[in-house]
Specification:
alpha/beta; TIM Barrel; about 325 residues; Non-ribosomal Peptide Synthetase Peptidyl Carrier Protein, Chain A; ten-stranded mixed beta sheet; two-stranded antiparallel ribbon
Length: about 325
């Protein structure tokens, strides 16, 4: 996939996930083969107020590139102002959120509420495009509800407004994250617009990623919840696309090693106890599918100190008789 001059190869990208896709997760995903990552969504109004929390969400490191910074809001003027702020930190893309179904976002007219106002969505896209020289993309849903399925109309309006690519999560706002994603919506958007289309939704395995590319003809696959505690999905899917063969799933030792590295990144980025606390949901996701994992998870989510959590993970690793080694050394060329 190519978005203006940005080449995304392999066509596998990390979705924006509020509360998850912070710097540490993006770093791990990039090392594991994600070709493009997204920030968590950032409030345009927060950026306009110089909110410390909003500015923190916007921060990223060089080894996370290429990266898209996602903003959300309901007014063209504030979104344009936010785009100017984002431009100053120079991400590779600026993304507009038209898909978040969260009540606190929708009640202010942002996120998936914009699927109900195509003219306003187009005005916002045009304002953002005119406010920056960075390519602008947008992430949408199927529509508001089963009675209001208008992804093709919205995507077409966004493309006409200058958006350089569109990501489609084919669930409605009413669905939230329940039920099944209707991939046929992605296909209809692909057939309707002349800009790259990124497919999203229900990609949990390498086979899912390959099947989405085949069934929808989308230009790239966006993986979100399927990558939480499972960053290997990018390298494994990339191998499937290039060779037709899927590498084995990570063994328990590999899961623990990467959990330790993720923990260290979290604490380095956020300090204690915050980094340890925010790591808990990732640890729960990493430690699944092997003997003793449930008891280990239950113990770790009660420990607050970085050294104590790390020591407990290292003891578990030692019982497995696993050799040490860095993530970069183990993944090697598969992560490039």
């Amino acid at each position: 996939m190519t978005i203006r001059e940005l080449v995304v190869d392999p066509p596998l990208v990390l979705a924006p996930l509020a509360g998850y896709t912070d710097g540490p997760m993006r770093t791990i995903a990039r090392r594991m083969g994600a070709s493009l990552v997204w920030t968590e969504m950032v409030s345009a109004e927060g950026l306009a107020r110089d909110s410390a929390a909003s500015l923190e969400l916007l921060a990223f490191a060089g080894d996370e590139r290429p990266i898209a910074a996602q903003i959300f809001g309901a007014r063209p003027d504030s979104m344009a102002a936010a785009a100017s702020v984002v431009t100053s930190v120079a991400p590779d893309l600026i993304d507009i959120n038209l898909g978040c179904p969260a009540r606190k976002v929708v009640r202010n007219g942002a996120g998936s509420a914009l699927m109900r106002d195509v003219a306003l969505a187009a005005d916002i896209a045009r304002a953002v495009v005119e406010a920056t020289e960075i390519p602008v993309t947008a992430k949408i849903r199927s529509g508001w509800s089963d009675d209001e399925l208008n992804a093709v109309e919205v995507a077409s309006a966004l493309a006409d407004s200058g958006v350089a690519a569109v990501a489609v999560h084919p669930r409605t706002k009413a669905q939230g994250f329940s039920g099944s994603a209707d991939w046929s919506v992605i296909r209809r958007v692909v057939e309707a617009v002349d800009v790259p289309v990124i497919g999203s939704g229900d990609v949990r395995t390498p086979d899912d990623a390959a099947r989405m590319l085949d069934e929808t003809a989308c230009d790239a696959v966006m993986i979100g919840r399927g990558a939480v505690g499972n960053p290997w999905i990018f390298a494994r899917a990339a191998a499937l696309l290039s060779s037709g063969t899927v590498p084995n799933e990570p063994d328990p030792a590999e899961r623990i090693r990467v959990a330790i590295e993720h923990l260290d990144l979290m604490v380095a980025a956020k300090g204690e106890p915050r980094g340890v606390f925010e790591m808990r949901k990732h640890i729960v996701a990493y430690l699944r599918g092997f003997a003793g994992a449930s008891a280990l998870r239950a113990e770790l989510v009660l420990i607050e100190g970085h050294r104590d959590v790390r020591a407990r993970l290292e003891r578990a690793l030692g019982r497995l008789g696993a050799p040490e080694g860095s993530l970069a050394d183990r993944v090697g060329e598969d992560a490039t």
